[in-house]
Queue: 2 jobs
Job 1
Amino acid sequence: MDNKDFVLRARKKIKEGLSIDDLIRKLIAFSDSLEKGENTIFEQLNDLYFLYYPEAADKLKERDKFIDKLKEACDRGSISKILDISAESMGYDFQDDEIQLLSLSVNEINNIANLREIVNERLKDIIKKNYPNLTAVLGTEITARMIYLAGSSHSLMLMPSSKIQVLGAEKAMFAARRKKATPKYGIIYNHELVISTPEKLKGKVSKVIAAYSSLAAKTDVLSKEDKSNKILEDMTNDIKKVRSKNGT
Amino acid sequence: MELKKVMDRVYWLSDKRRTLVTLSAYSEKSVYGEKIFNLGGKIYREWVPYRSKFSAAFYKGLNGVDIKDAYKVLYLGASSGTTVSHVSDIVGTNGQVFAVEIAEEMAVNLILLAEERNNIFPIVDDARKAENYVNNVPKCDLLYQDVAQRDQTDIFIKNSDLFLKTGKIGMFAIKTRSIDVSTDPREVVRNEVRKLRAKFDVLREINLYPYQKDHSLLILRKK
């Protein structure tokens, strides 16, 4: 007996089992680790820069600002002009070689940041094209996260909306098994409609959004029709109702 | 370095300390980064106890099971094929190893291994749903299971009913943490053994500590 048939069958099964969700999951993980790398390099680089020019490093503690200002040149002369501070510094005087090293590193972080931008852009396109209803309800970023956390769009579709509501809050959910109250929201908290809601109603609004994202996920996976307009309209009406009922 | 035979194609290689090796039935290539020994023109592959529960059982005092040349083996939970490659060494080119694995990323490695080793028959399927592959797999001489699922005992009984010949050996790696985290591991093993008693004679129970944490290997004979 030969194992050729088995190998062929297994290969076919693997190929059929892969879907766009696998690509989405990998791209999100990639984008996350790019950001992590960016932050780690930035922290060390800011530390290094602090040694050379502490007055400027103190003003450039945010990553994007740091990259933006130091992109062109890193020496004290040009930075002092950009930030409008004195070029006299109490830091250690670096040789030209070290300054070159600094600007090389800044460029490197900038490259990583650009790459992440490209990855996110591509991710957005994929999500928009494949899950129009979910995108309408949640926006591309949260949709991508939801699929990442659920494992696949199919398992997201199978979830009840109460689970979708607390997706991403697993730690609080398990703490609630002991004594604490159950969480009201997971990653849905970052939804613009939840952010713009007063603190007291956030739980109620996220419940409505979760219900409609469950509906949207089912529409996306099962019927594959674009009914985003209707879903979005219904959802805004419901949220309005919740808000007016509770007096805001 | 001298070789001491444990069973067919499995040897202890004693140097400063003893190392378990299998006589390679195929190429001299390392499958998962294990050491390769070339003694008198024959290729031996190290069988690492930290990577394989089967090997850990030998290190913990097992001195042979009923597995030899041209045997048919059903292997559930093949993963990327670490232990499978050694089982394929033992049964040789005339034997057959039917390796079941559900996780796609692991199964890819298994399939690549099967392309090099013609006695491995990869099946990408759920071991719970044995009816899916019942038509492709014949009656086997050995059933080896390592799946780390909560219902692993039920999976084992179901597959042995369908595929294992009477009087042949079943090897069952129990991961106690998968069944119940809160109970004492020994208690968990005792409970599972009680379930298995109806259909199997329990020949041995080997605790795989320190090579594998919270794992026991049961050697059973089908009644």
Note: The interface with chain B takes residues 1-3, 6-7, 9-11, 13-14, 17-18 of chain A (CB under 8 Å).
Job 2
Amino acid sequence: MDTYHDDKYFMTFDSTVKMSDAIAIEANNLTKVYRDSIRAVDGISFSVRQGEIFGLLGPNGAGKTTTIKMIITLTKATSGTLHVFGIDVFKSPETVREMLGYVPQSISVDTDLTAYENLLIFSKLSYVNKKERNERIRNALEYMDLSSRADDIVKRYSGGMMRRLEIAQALVNRPKILLLDEPSIGLDPSSKKQVWKNIKQLNQEFGTTILITTHDMGEADELCDRIAIMSEGKIAILGTPLDLKRDVGGDIVTVNLAFTPPIMSLPKEIGNIVHNNEKSIQILTTNGEEAIPLIADFFRSHEIRVESISINKANLDDVFMKYAKRRLGDEMYKATRNTRRDFARRAR
Amino acid sequence: MNIRRFLSSSITIAEMEARKIRHDSTELWTRIIQPALWLLVFGETFNAIKAMPSGNFSYIQFITPGILAQSVLFISIFYGITVVWEKDVGIITKLLSTPSPRSSIVLGKSLAAGLRGAFQAIVIFALALLIGAKIRLDPIDVAGVFAVVILFAMCFSSLSMFLASYLKTRDRMMGIGQALTMPLFFASNAIYPISVMPIWLQYVSIANPLSYAVDAIRSMLLVGTYGNLLVDMLVLFLSTIVFLVLASMSIKKLLE
């Protein structure tokens, strides 16, 4: 079993590992129906490439956690197939668990033990070689910046430290894939940043494949190479954060003019006017930053003085609203979009 | 399944419990109060009025093995609550997500209950000596008593884990624990001999593992003859295996 583990896990820097073509997780038509006939996961298919950070997004109850639980073999799929590095998850659960590190949604370290003891017990249960055990524990603690508090009872830790300890715990068996279920839930902004830094570092330095679930769009945008948005057990859309943002139409540039211009139209390459409120014009562009100089030039050439230009970048919230809550109807999506515009207007 | 890995995981789970107890042993000490009251109040009183036909032994001698078994029963029948609590805080999820086989987690947890039972045994030995109840202190018998106590704790803690897999909440486990302990206790030979029971209750007590545990402890601690010991141990061993297997199969349901 030790062949799964790269012995230099904490020492090598190998950027070639990142984004290889190997498939780390492959789900095909994966379905989970609970006893009360709720289709928590409804025939989803996706694959996670080795070395990428893959995000499963969606509102509460979309089926993200159920999906993760099927991968870590805590719950069995009703139908469909699931492979981790080619191994059938349902046929060889223990072999699969050996390749995975799992950080559940709620804090699950044992708060009655010290950090060191938590890692010790966990490394024993993961059958880490006795000779390597202590070094791996030390490395994992160091890596998560917890060395100085290793012998404290975890009860006295802050939420952020507990979360980091949890990731450290998932690292002692040097997983090929790390499954993080809502890793930054309930953390203050600075702890959140620290956890993000650790996650990115793991991925970049050691090529660990990471599957993360979240409903925080900022987090997904910050961390993920690719994102699947889930809604009611299905994958609504899958792509890179950039693709998804493009999908909702791009950035809105608001131009405030010195006086109300005569009726006019913008050249296509700049964008479309979506809202026109006398001296204030909102333009939908594919890339706001690039559009600003063009817009400025355009008004200058028409001898209309521009007082200010502001930009409201499309973000994953828009994507989320569009796909995750589609059932609520376009009304809601439009309403959000309008709210955002109103907000942009007030913000000027 | 690799047997060495299986055993090492089980022992690790027990080690986890031992480490927790080392950090905070308050619970262990509070667990002593109840058996102490049984011995010091109930035992002494009934000893003085000589109301129970306890054979060749004083009542306090007769009751000591019963109280030991009873206090271990209490600890282990409520062990499922600990497991439910550990599920609620995510520890069980974490344990079940390791490569360790599920059955080794269950066996480890039952060993942990055995560990707590062994601590009770030490304390009750000390109490018995303190109040001058004459018990046999032959090393082999004492070791035998510990073996019975650990096996008995494993038996009922795995029953408790099996029930917890279906009941899932602490409240329900509390209820079922209360509902089970008293019938098990009174339908056993813990505080009176089976011969004084009404006939129907005698039949119930034959199906009660507690009776066998008490009988085994009594034969080693008081009587010194081992006529029934083999049967006692066999019954305990078999019921432990049955409950361990049931709990191993059901434990995953706890997470649902």
Note: The mean pLDDT of chain B is 92.
